[in-house]
Amino acid sequence: MSAERQEDLFGMFSPTAGVHQHPPAEPHRSAESIVFERSARARNYRLTLRRDGTAVATIPARGSEREALRFVERHGEWLERARERQRSRPSAAGIWTIGTHVLWRGEMTEVRVAALGRPGTPGGPPPAAADRPQVCLAADVFRVHRLEGDLRPTLESHFLQRAKVELTARTWELAAVTGSEAKHVIVRNQRSRWGSCSANGTISLNWRLVQTPDFVRDYIVYHELMHLREMNHSDRFWARVAEVCPGWRDAEHWIKRNGSLLGL
User: Fold this and answer.
1) Looking at domain 155-262, which of 3.90.1150.10, 3.30.2010.10, 3.40.630.30, 3.90.380.10 is its CATH number?
2) Quick one: pLDDT band at residue 2, thresholds 50, 70, 90?
3) pLDDT by residue (tens digit) across 243-259?
4) All CATH 3.30.2010.10 domain ranges in the chain, comma separated
5) CA distances from 227 to 87, 219, 232, 238 (A)
6) Beta bridge partners of 112
7) Is the pLDDT of residue 202 over 50?
8) Residue 71: left (phi > 0), alpha (psi -120 to 50), or beta?
9) How distant, in Å, are the alpha carbons of 22, 84, 157, 197, 209 from that of 189?
10) What pLDDT shows up at residue 43?
11) I need a surface site. Which of 78, 100, 154, 259 has the fewest CB within 10 A?
12) Distance between CA atoms of 95 and 153, rounded to whole angstroms?
């Protein structure tokens, strides 16, 4: 699975006689608002539509901007379709206030003021916290500094702390079930991927997985655990994923439709 939520199109590139290797250069933006970037590692021309709507044409080390422009022109219809798909995807609110709907546990859930019990009573806040407001997302309650203004930074901080506990525990649980030899589990703020696996056995997960449905969360964990056995995306890798997570295609479908709600 591509961890990046962007549209990609590759083109085959065959070096031709008389074409010399060019040194890396700064990205160049054409009059058609296409950014051209040269890559020493790229073997093919590549057209990418980033999440911010920027179209990027990657030029192989021995390629030319002229040929890259031809590649873009040949695939203009693809680029327009990709832009239309991007425009049609749902997006999250930039500022979270009381009444905003936020993706939480896989559902769009309204941020509401939490009802407080009397300090010191069962279900009520401790006396020291009695004057601190709380908000709720479904059954989950979070303490905030104030009810006015943007609640997003505070709530996302709470989400991160819960993710460190929940995602770590779930990864170790599924590692035991699948017999995978993970060495470390890290939960962090990744902006372009849901998870990753290193050769030394470290599984890194995006904290935003606590906002997704359980079956999506588990799929990402299974995906990275299977990379401990196959550090690639070969047919053999996907066969291993299907063995431990038969519903992985449904999870991929959910991600493609809803990942934009989380900025991925």
Assistant:
1) 3.30.2010.10
2) very low
3) 999 999 999 999 988 88
4) 155-262
5) 33, 12, 7, 10
6) 136
7) yes
8) alpha
9) 36, 28, 10, 15, 11
10) 87
11) 78
12) 9
> Which pLDDT belongs to residue 51?
67
- At 168, list the tokens: 């770590």
Quick check: 103 pLDDT over 60? yes
Backbone angles phi, psi at 58, to 5 degrees: -90, 130
Q: Is the dihedral of CA 26, 31, 33, 39 positive or negative?
A: negative
In this structure, which amino acid lies at residue 138? A
Whether residue 115 has pLDDT greater than 90: no
For residues 193 and 195, what is the distance between their CA atoms, to the nearest angstrom?
6
Tokens of 35: 């950014």
